[in-house]
Amino acid sequence: MKVSVVSRSGREIVKGGVDLNDSATVADLQEAIHKRTKKFYPSRQRLTLPVQLGSKERPVVLSYKKSLKDYTDGNSDNLTVVFKDLGPQVSYRTLFFWEYLGPLVLYPIFYYFPVYEYFGYKGERVIHPVQTYAMYYWCFHYFKRIMETFFVHRFSHATSPLSNVFRNCAYYWTFGCYIAYYVNHPLFTPVSDLQMKIGFGFGILCQVSNFYCHILLRNLRRPEGDGGYQIPRGFLFNIVTCANYTTEIYQWLGFNIATQTVAGYVFVVVAAGIMTNWALTKHRRLKKLFDGKEGRPKYPRRWIILPPFL
Ligand SMILES: NC(=O)c1ccc[n+]([C@@H]2O[C@H](COP(=O)([O-])OP(=O)(O)OC[C@H]3O[C@@H](n4cnc5c(N)ncnc54)[C@H](OP(=O)(O)O)[C@@H]3O)[C@@H](O)[C@H]2O)c1
Known about the structure:
3-oxo-5-alpha-steroid 4-dehydrogenase C-terminal domain-containing protein; oxidoreductase; two-stranded antiparallel sheet; lipid metabolism; NADP; lipid biosynthesis
């Protein structure tokens, strides 16, 4: 089979095309493109079928697991695919590891080291119990996230653009320092003992629930599965589509009830905004996939992220 690999403008990416045997898969084609171009390893490549000029249709993205024959429309000798370079890629685990490592390491620096001397505070620093608990709570949270990244989540996409590492690290590392600076500050005023206990107690409960939500999400996919989507069920998923985001937001709320800083509340508002956006997309996708037609199950009526509001 002869495969022509062209850019969106029609320029040939692999001179003379690629010759493959009839049983070749899309993965074989990607390997062949890599061999010929050297630069474009498989996860950098996005291969689609050509669309008519001016057509508003979305191009069909070739799945690496499928045979090339599945895309030839009966004519098995020639195929043209459109190539797009997705840019340098990193694995999702690498991305998550680096974004979470920042807050895990940076926060304790503000607690343990005389950072505030550099900001002009010369007096003795008295550490309140709430500041100590906050440091453990914070570190537990990010340690849990790193562990979940490696041992719990079953991602559908193998890689993410390298540029996301810089964007996400900027977000997490900056917020980490911003909150750590105020919670560990020598002039920090603690809330009442009762408020602290309510905040941390509620927060821990939400962190444990968040972990359980991630276990339920994990069980929706088989280890060797194809990364498809299922209807999440059980525990809080019976009432809300993105129960993992709900518990994430509420656990930050618990942290803020206990520590009460403007920085912490700014973070929870920004994070809730981001997660709400994602939750709307995920809810829409599940409703579309499970539309109740042609034997497909119908997605049950559920809140999206923050019952009883949304
Ligand atoms: N503080 C913040 O700013 C913030 C922001 C975002 C996330 N987080 C935390 O980080 C955690 C992970 O975030 P995330 O955005 O990666 O979570 P997510 O996409 O909702 O889910 C985690 C894993 O479960 C899979 N999954 C989700 N829905 C599924 C379904 N219906 N069927 C099968 N698998 C499904 C996802 O697959 P895919 O690989 O296909 O997506 C992903 O691997 C969150 O739960 C939250 O605790 C915090």
